[in-house]
Amino acid sequence: MENLYIPATNETPEINFNFSEHKLHMSGESYPENAMAFYAPVRASLHNYLSNTQPHGEVEAHFSLKYFNSSSTKLIRSLIALMHDSAQAGKRIVTHWYHDPDDDMMSEFGNDLKDEFRMLDIRVVATEPA
Amino acid sequence: MDQISAANHGGAAVEPVRIVHFTEGLLLPCDSVTPATPNKDVFALFEAQPEMMGLPVVEDGHPIGLINRNIFMQSMARPFHREVFLNKSCIAFMDKEPLIVDKKTSIQDLSFRVLEGGQKAMNDGFIISDDDRYLGVGTAQDMLRAVANLQAEKNRLVMESIDYASVIQQSLSRPSRDGMRKTLADHFLIWEPRDVVSGDFYHFHDYEDGFLVVLFDCTGHGVPGAFMTLIMSAFLQSALNTVRHDDPGAILGAVNRLVKTAMGHIDHQHADSGDEESADDGMDAAFCWIDRRSRTLTYAGAHLPLLLLGPDDQEVRSLDGDRQGVGYAATPMDQVWRNHVVELPEGTCAYLFTDGFVDQLGGPKRIAFGKRRTREVILKHRGQTMPEQRAALLAALEDYQGREPRKDDVSAIGFRF
Asked: Chain B partners of A67 at a C-beta cutoff of 8 Å?
């Protein structure tokens, strides 16, 4: 299926879903006025990929987000939930959640995700910005 | 050239603002000629009226073309042209496809047509007609001014509307502000909407046996966020009629059921299924009941923590409450928020912050202000009054934020009891 690339804007993150290589990247900031409008197609494409593709190896997901508003929070969570359901059904997915070592909010969010989505391999990684 | 445009600019600025909605409002009377008019008459007209950039050509009352001053004058200046053309019809030098706009055309439609017309329409302006009959001309400069004035007028109307919405929102919280002032000798309130009205809101209710302090943060900010605060406030009032006021967890549960039922956030237990287009809004919230006699605080939280600093504490304690938000489609109808009961030694400070405070970006690395910094500011200023702590918290946030724009509504309540 076709890869999904959406360049970053001031209010929306970069989406780089390289489905053919089974690598999913999302990075930047997310505070659009209408978060649903931005995330609905992203979610649809991830859903389509997870339900229709059988990779030989594992799927890699990388989230490096600096800021997101509360409506984006729910939708980012729903992307993780999709991967969680897929992992529960047997797919091998490794999810990396990156945060700045000083960013206690992002680190806490990553650890909350770990608590909540126990069947998904979520690795919270403290990393200095490149 | 610069001086001329600067002078024009200054002149335009002092003119009273006149709002023009239709092309008619830009009409300038202008001499016109007919196809029978010889070029020598056109020449005379241009010489007599140096400000006239274009001369319309009208046949039987219908506009058929526009003679551009510069093109005409340059042609006339060529060798022998004058002798050859002076007595011939003026249509030789006319533009046969000038921009002709009906007087009832809106300024917005006109501006798009002028833009489509490119440089020609910007220079020559346009002919204004009434049912295809010639009326006069309009200039691109007048059109630009009309567009700018309209834009300013629309902004003003929207801002006036939002300003008044803010008056309504603030009168809804007045009883809570008065109640806090009456009941809490040492307290502060931060309520800073990002865009005039806020998606954050607070309530304070005083009862004989204690008082209820509520801070919530609805999804969104600005007008949609403020809508949600009104809805939530109404449901909070109605929940307080049916459940005990000293049971914050039960109040959260009741508000959740009311919101979900009223807004149709039912039937899909997962936010990731169902109708993506439907709204799915709710709130983070912290509800605190303070019992006067037992000196206890009962807290129930939906993703909005409570910070506590007792007189003998070395660190700021944080009660995180439950993760589940209130009213969302993914939140079950029968969701239970747990009550946490803590003792309040005399002089304990309690704080509630919406995430706009801790999530604000700033600092050299552009990362969130965070909970750690918030706790540090509180610890450092623990000996000061609550209003002084408020000032210290806001100063720390603003200093950290620097030139980074405010990302969200920022609210907080603090009190010493």
From this structure: 359, 361, 368, 407
